[in-house]
Structure formats: structure tokens, C-alpha cells
Amino acid sequence: MIINADLHLHGKYSGAVSNDMLPRTIGEQAKLKGLNLVATADILNQKWMAEIKKNLKEEGGVLSDDSGTKFILQTEIEDQNRVHHIILFPSLSKVMEVRERISRYAKDLDTEGRPKVHLSGEQIAEIAIEAECMIGPSHAFTPWTSLYKEYDSLKDCYGKYSDRIYFLELGLSADTDMADRISELEDITFLSNSDAHSPWPNKMGREFTSFEVNEISFEELKNAIMRKKGRRPILNVKFDPREGKYHRTRCMNCLVFYSLSDAESFKWRCPICRKPIKKGVAERIEELAKGRRTIHPDHRPRCLHIIPLSEIISLAYNIRTPYSQKVQEIWRRFVEKFGTEIEILIRSDQDELKRIDKNVADLISAFRNNEFKYVPGGAGRYGIPVPPGKKAVYKVWNGTKAIEVDVRDEESYLSQPSITDFM
Ligand SMILES: [Zn+2]
Ligand SMILES: [Zn+2]
Question: Which ligand number lies closest to the CA of residue 169?
Fold first, then answer.
């Protein structure tokens, strides 16, 4: 069977997370989105664990609710170097075992969903692996809390456990074309997860990974991530990386984009406003690739870019927020007809979409045909998808001053090695 899995979420006890992020709402919304397996999120937090146990049933290590959505036991941990890791657990007893071993090193285990643990990546990997869990880096290339903001290799982070790391989460600002420029990742399975802080379908499942498995269990998921016994990942579905918050190198204050070499020559201070320039994921990968172009290993599945349906509807009707009543109403009409949002975005037939709403159908088709442009994300601001023909501008440093670029003047942005190359 083929399953759609989103393996990184946060519950309502994590900072800046919606109060709607509750087990039952997650399960119901996952079903409408088209996800078969989601993460429990934050399972090391006692209050959240109680919430999970009260609302879900455990069988064979995986939990489930009345809607049929399955949950895998999961947490994110921040280590002593502010690197984030995802842990997937085989059972609630292993959750307790890991909790026990890290509790001495974590002050906020029950006040946070994502605990800060005063241990290195290698020490955390040791604890996780000894408890038969799987562990790997979260949003691996982002500039604040990721493995590659701190280290140049998996080995530098995980030490003697680096060959027991079987997955890496790409994060919203990278995709497989970008990450496959790094040779040490050839054998690693890439996960695309939402890292959602709210259960609504423009957040949860905005990224997910499809796997081929025989049933939904920890063992089957582990085999799929390790690509054993014929189980395997078959598709990464994610944002266009240009929409990610840290895609390009950008001034934190005046939001001008810089090339890697310009940012270096200015010592990461914006020459216009003197505020810090934040390194983008594209430029970090550029450094790590050391001139290597994209080489996909044979096992690498296709990577498909999507845009949440409510965002497409907002764009089709020029409505600012995807939470408005009109957007929700159109969204419901589509989902009632097609069953799930994933079905609509990926597989649905153009003529059938048109019967529900022509404007939205046309934009879905434009997106599928790669006709969208982007104001790229950077410095913590999401990128902005721009429908074909629409004007949108952003500022880039051209070597001597900041100049305005209109997205309509861009040519195949992603194939350009640097933002300044097309000016
Ligand atoms: Zn994180
Ligand atoms: Zn600036």
C-alpha cells in the first residue's frame, strides 16, 4: 500500500503553536488533507502525552483515532548546540525510556513541546538508537537551528553514530535537487514534513512523504526509510523551495537579497542599513556542494512541488487570508467532490476541477505547468507565489547598490546558480 506521511508536527504545548493543535483535530484534518500517517508531535512532554493517551488507542506501537488516521510517536529535540533533531519511537515504553535518560539534561521537558537538552547530537543519537528509535536532523539547512548551520557534515554532528542516521528532513527552503548536490547525502532518505504549528490544511501536510509499505507500523516505516525488503519512499511532496522562509541570503531588516560572495565581502552586515544578513539555504548548500551539480542516486524518489489549495483559492480571488469564509467555502466544495486536498492538487483531472471553479482550476493548472514566479523567501519571511503575468518586485544587491527586480523578468530562476546571475 501507498501512504502519505507527515512525520514532524508540534502540539499545543510547544511555543507559538495553535490551541487547535489537539489529537482529535489533527486526526480529522489529516483525513481531509489525505494524510494516512501523522506524527504525534512533542511526545516527551507529559501533559501532551496524557492528551495523546486519552484520545488515541495504541496498537503495535502506532496510535489511531476514530477517523482512521494513524499516529507515529515523535518528538523534536534541540541539542546543546541549538541543532534540532527528529526522533521516531517504536512504542510508548521506549518514549518513557528516552524521557528517563534525558530528563537530567533538560529543564523544560514539561513546559515545552520541543525540549532543549544539554547534550551533543552524538549523545542524543546514542540514547535514541539504544532505545531502538530512529533519529535524524530537522530542517537540515536552515540558518538558526539546523545541523548544517553548525557543522559541515553529518559525522561532525553525530560522531560514531553518523552511519546510523537514515533520514534527513529537507525543510521548506530546500528540495531534492538542491540537497542532492551534497555527496555525503547520497545514501540518506529525504523526508518532507510540514513542521506544522496548526492543524489546518495550509499548514499540516503542506509537505509530506509517500511511502510504499505493507501496513502502517513503526517497523514498516523504518524499513521504508531504510529502503529494505522492498519498502521505500516513493515521492517527496513539498513547497517550491522559493516559498521557504530561509531560501535565499537576505538582510534581516531591509530585506535586500545578497549573493554569497557579496554577503561574505560585507562580513554579513548589510551595507545599506548595517543590520545582519542571514545566510539562505540555497547559499549554504552552494558552500557544502563545493561546485558539485545535482546528482540523484537511483533510489531517490521524484520531488513534487505543491501549494496549499486554500492559498491557490486566495490567489485566484485576490483574498488576503486563506482563512476567510469565501476561501473556506470554495475549499469545502472541492474537498467534498474529490475527497482529499492531496487528490485535488496532485491527481485530479483539469476538466473536473473546472466544473467546481474555473478560476481556481486555471491556477492549479498554471502551478502544475511551472508557470508561477516567486518573490523568494529569506531572513524569516516566506516567499510569495505570484501567478503568471502578475507583477511583484523585490530588491537585490547588484554589486554597487540595491535594485528592484520584477518577477516577470525572471527566467527559470532555479537553474541559476546565483541570484545576481540573471541581472
Ligand atoms: Zn525545529
Ligand atoms: Zn539591510
Answer: 1
- The Å distance, Cα 144 to ligand 1 centre, comes to 9
CA distances from residue 149 to 146, 249, 385, 421 in whole angstroms, order as listed? 5, 13, 26, 25
Beta strands in 260-414 (DSSP E): 277-278, 302-305, 373-375, 384-386, 393-397, 402-406
Tell me the per-residue pLDDT of 239-296, one tens digit each, with 9 for 90 and over.
999 999 999 999 999 999 999 999 999 999 999 999 999 999 999 999 999 999 999 9
User: Which ligand is nearest the CA of 8, by number?
Assistant: 1
**Nearest ligand atom owner, CA of 197:** 1
C-beta neighbour count of 385 within 10 angstroms: 22
Cα–ligand 2 centroid distance for 261 (angstroms)? 16
- Nearest ligand atom owner, CA of 249: 2
Q: Which fold has domain 2-238?
A: TIM Barrel (3.20.20)
Tell me where in the chain the CATH 3.20.20.140 domain(s) lie: 2-238
Distance 246 CA to ligand 1 centre (A): 13
Q: Ligand 2 centroid to 399 CA: how many Å?
A: 14
401 Cα to the center of ligand 2, angstroms: 11
**Closest by Cα among 301, 279, 108, 318 to 188:** 301
pLDDT digits (tens, 9 = 90+) for 332-385: 999 999 999 999 998 889 999 999 999 999 999 999 998 999 999 999 999 999
Whether the Cβ atoms of residue 73 and residue 61 lie closer than 8 Å to each other: yes
Closest CA to 170 of 199, 202, 195, 196: 195
Q: pTM value?
A: 0.95
Spacing, Cα 30 to ligand 1 middle (Å): 21
